[in-house]
Amino acid sequence: MSLVLTVNGGSSSLKCALFAPQAESTECLYQFKLSNILNAPVMKVISSRGETLEQHQPDMSAIDTEDRHQACLDQVIQWVRKQMPDSRISAFGHRVVHGGQSFSDPVKINEKILLRLEELIPLAPLHQPYNLKLIRACQRLEPELPQIACFDTMFHIGQPDIERHYAIPRKYTEAGVHKYGFHGLSYEFIQRSLEKIGKGAESEKTVICHLGAGASMCAVKKGKSIASSMGFTAVDGLPMGSRTGNIDPGVLLYLQRHYHMDTDQLENFLYKESGWLGVSGISSDMLELEQSDQPEAEEAIAMFAYRAALEIGRLSAALQGLEQLVFTGGVGENDSKLRKRICDQLEWLGVKLNKSANKEGEAIISKASAKVLVRVIPTNEEAMIALHAQEVLA
Length: 394
Description:
- The protein has 394 residues and is an alpha/beta fold.
- It is 39% helix and 20% strand.
- It contains 15 helices and 13 strands.
- The strands form two sheets. An eight-stranded mixed sheet has the order 5-4-3-2-1-6-8-7, sandwiched between helices.
- The longest helix is centred in the C-terminal third of the chain and has 25 residues.
């Protein structure tokens, strides 16, 4: 049996999933999660039913931290070979955060494309280097196998210029300083899920809310992204676990002048010290905030719900109306309290929540009489990557 292994890495983590391609779909066989890989790595293997099959700490004390990602990837490949000797990995599918203006579709990676993707590192310095590091690691481990890059930005290519462009001198816009939007693989998976539902679900004026520690929203019209909350970087838009979201650029100038912050300090402020963590002073985890009785935790939650409702209003204006609202992502799929907070502020748009359906996390959580249909659809970026890999190789 030929298999596709999806690869999605961060600075100190690695997520892989093993898929068996089928006609126009894929079946996930196993998931592999490796955490804390720069210190004491932990490897967890999860079945297709979500059960943890094994968990252990591979000894990597003798491996330099620069080589840990490749060593962790090798652990996954060796596990597959041992447990599934009659099968073989036939391709790697990679999540690459930034495809710039050049990549509107998944691509089979070659050296020329890899060099082009390295040029985009300044646009996503916290994510892109690790995406490309894992591509190189796959090349060293399995040089004969094809690798397919799938981009978080590609779903948003084609948005109108008035949405993508900033009010800055045109020379900078033409040099690539404009909105790109992210979480595109998640949005594409949700759009394909709506197409499977049919009955017009796929073509309605829809706002998709991908809510988690990294949060964004996307306005989709007739299956196409026409506006999104994230911009030039993935720090823009909604306040997130530890990211600021929208902020007056003048604040950064003020911090630079009066607190003498340099570029690295400002980057840390924007990405790692702010958002729910910064407001609450407690945590970047929504569940922890909801369990806290501190007023600062309540403020962080209320701010997020308020800003989410505001953004849905903006995206509804881009759509010239709203017919469908979809919640997805770790928080969007599982947090009924937060969904209610957001939807309660959208009654003016025609959103009416069915409280019991929302509490139970049903597929449709709006009242039958509501003008806006509200859905909860689990996302699966790894499945989208595997499907793209299958389509490219076909």
